[in-house]
Amino acid sequence: MQRTPNYDLHCHSTASDGLLAPAELVRRAGVNGVEILALTDHDELCGLAEARAQAKVLGLRFVDGVEVSISWGEITIHVVGLNIDPDNQQLQQGLQSIRQGRAERAKKMAQDLERVGIPGSLEGAYAYVDNPNLIGRTHFARFLVEKRYVNDVKSAFQHYLVSGKPGYVPHQWATLADALSYIRAGGGIPVVAHPGRYKLSRTEMRRFLGEFRDGGGVGIEVVTSSHTPEQSLEYAILAKEFGFLASRGSDFHGPGESRVDLGRLPDLAADLKPVWHDW
Ligand code: AMP
Ligand code: MN
Ligand code: MN
Ligand code: MN
Predict the structure, then answer these.
(1) Are residues 93 and 113 in the same domain?
(2) Which domain covers residue 106, as residue numbers?
(3) pLDDT, one tens digit for every residue, the chain (279 residues)
(4) For ligand 1, atom 9, which residue shows the shortest CA distance?
(5) Is residue 263 in a domain?
(6) Which among 20, 39, 86, 180 could disulfide-bond with 24, CB atoms 3.0 to 4.6 Å apart, if both were Cys?
(7) Is 168 contained in some domain?
(8) How far is the centre of ligand 3, averaged over its atoms, from the C-alpha of 2 (Å)?
(9) Which residues have any ligand 1 atom within 6 Å of their CB?
(10) Ligand 3 is a single-atom ion; what residues have CB below 5 A from it?
């Protein structure tokens, strides 16, 4: 039987909240044996050109991607768009509209942290930002680690920055319908990111997956660093039930911060139709 190439279809660079510049990220992927890599920065395409150029130098196949933030009712869900056209105007404008509001949210997050006795977090978070259009919670988490309020980024998200904790500011992202239409306009394949991470009951998850499919969504991440083996199995079953293509991605953000390195995930189960089936 033919060996499946090492696909990693979800990761982040300094164009959003990753620690490595796009070219560095691609070099690391190459060293780790990744053969087909998608860069999927949050709501942003500006890292793709550099990553693609470096991938070309290394002879690594590169897939243009993006991870779009959406609000579905009260909860935030991420949808990855794979094989998008970074020059598509509708996609670009859609993402720009999603990015707007991040700066304002960041100011409110800093005010909220100030109220619990943490000063200077706005400047502190911006010190970790490479792309001024894309400040996010991870940048605040790094600041909280630097100032020793917490020991690591994971603890920062346990004690701060999440619903019910200081530094959390609810935010209205794109609607599911809008996100799907932007990705579709850009010729991309919409894929539900790390489904196991959302606080949804089984019933709500099914309702979401139904709406996602009805709106033109076609894929779901089955193997991701966010999933336990049991969750991978659970979402493999849902992928088959809903007729979704299955994806695999590390969601790597940086050395020392991510549990799973680029290209170091288990294989997809053989009975799933992979998202790269027709590539
Ligand atoms: P934002 O888009 O600014 O709300 O930030 C979302 C990002 O925060 C995610 O993409 C992750 O990189 C990070 N994040 C969220 N929850 C956690 C967590 N529990 N542990 C580590 N990072 C997290
Ligand atoms: Mn992130
Ligand atoms: Mn995500
Ligand atoms: Mn991600």
Answers:
(1) no
(2) 102-161
(3) 668 899 999 999 999 999 999 999 999 999 999 999 999 999 999 999 999 999 999 999 999 999 999 999 999 999 999 999 999 999 999 999 999 999 999 999 999 999 999 999 999 999 999 999 999 999 999 999 999 999 999 999 999 999 999 999 999 999 999 999 999 999 999 999 999 999 999 999 999 999 999 999 999 999 999 999 999 999 999 999 999 999 999 999 999 999 999 999 999 999 999 999 989
(4) 138
(5) no
(6) 20
(7) no
(8) 31
(9) 17, 42, 69, 136-138, 153-154, 157, 253
(10) 78, 193
